[in-house]
Amino acid sequence: MVAARYCGHPCCPRVTERDDDVRTVELTDSGRLDAVLAGALPDCSRSRLSRWIREGRVQIDGVAATRASQPVRAGMQVRIEWPPPAPPVTGTPVPFTVLYEDDAILVIDKPAGLIVHPGDLNETGTLVHGLLHRYPELANAFGDADPRRPGIVHRLDRGTSGVMVVARTEIARQKLATAFAERQVNKRYFAWVYGTAPESGTWDQPIGRHPRDRKRFAVVAAGKPAVSHFRRRWMRDGVSAIEVAIETGRTHQIRVHAAAARLPLLGDPVYGARAKPPAAFRDWAGSRNRPALHAHRLTFAHPVSGERVTFDAPLPDDLAELDARGC
Fold it and tell me: Under DSSP, is residue 81 helix (H, G, I), strand (E, B) or coil?
């Protein structure tokens, strides 16, 4: 066993042994195996790690792990038999609208229901597949960056529609990624929620994994900082339309903040499933299986010119019909 060192693999920050097929890491936290590994290896999803545990690829101090919930302690050595690399993504036709393009960036309008990039449970039909179909040069434009996320510098949830920016060059990717990380990008959303929202306000509450349901997120004291500013656009029959500007970009941020304020989003199958739609909106909420959430505006410095640019995505038909009910 050699001294701990960084191996260069994005999933392995504390590698103590490495060959082409094996990684060994020393745990620095205690808890259930999948959660501790996911915390130590932030670029590896829990679903992926759980699958490797089921496949017998994970050993703890030389003994095969038996289940994802197995308790582990700091200091234990976890040995992972790394699977072969995933096959490259092949471009296939996927519907989305290009709002703007130049040599450095693409600005797109992502439809609801479209996943941004391939993952453990979605190997086909993502936005990345569609991008590579229309712009095949993206496959070789980003050097050592993740080939399954070419040009992707931020994401929208599967059920969220709206505006996204995609890099077309490595320089643009680096500058945009830095802008997002340093909170230099203005991101505005339209959302429709159950209840009477205040005229304006700020949700400044940390967000992390739900303490009991690890597939969800929640406002938790030990979570990461998350700030959302909102203003009410209209209110009618127990539903409020709000515009939200987020300073941070936590997973499910607006949905979690709104639900914590007892203002869950219409149509949200995760955070608003228990809400009872008012009669005037029952038909809309009952016929949709996506949150009423749309990324309508994105403002950032262009990675080449440095000029501050703004792009808007129009409401899709389902949300335009919903919004018209409040006018």
Answer: strand
At 166, the pLDDT band (50, 70, 90 cuts) reads very high
Coil, strand or helix at 162: strand
Specify whether the CB–CB gap between 15 and 9 falls below 8 A: yes
Provide the whole-model pTM: 0.78
Among 113-127, 172-186, 267-281, which range has the highest average pLDDT? 172-186
Pairing assessment for the beta strands 63-64 and 161-167 based on DSSP bridges = unpaired
Tokens 């980003």, residue located: 142
Question: Using an 8 Å Cβ cutoff, are 294 and 319 in contact?
Answer: yes
CA distance 56 to 60: 11
Exposure of 327 by Cβ count < 10 A (0-12 exposed, 13-18 middle, 19+ buried)?
exposed
Whether the CB-CB separation of 298 and 310 falls below 8 Å is answered with yes
- pLDDT of the residue at 106: 98
Cα 216 from Cα 256, distance rounded (Å): 9
> Is residue 60 within 8 Å of residue 33, measured between CB atoms?
yes
The CATH homologous superfamily for domain 15-81 is RNA-binding S4 domain (3.10.290.10)
Catalytic residue ranges: 157
DSSP-derived secondary structure letter, 29: S
| Beta strand segments in 94-238, E | 97-101, 105-110, 161-167, 186-194, 200-204, 207-209, 217-219, 227-236
Q: How confident is the model at residue 85 (pLDDT cuts 50, 70, 90)?
A: confident
Domain formed by 97-180, architecture: 2-Layer Sandwich (3.30)
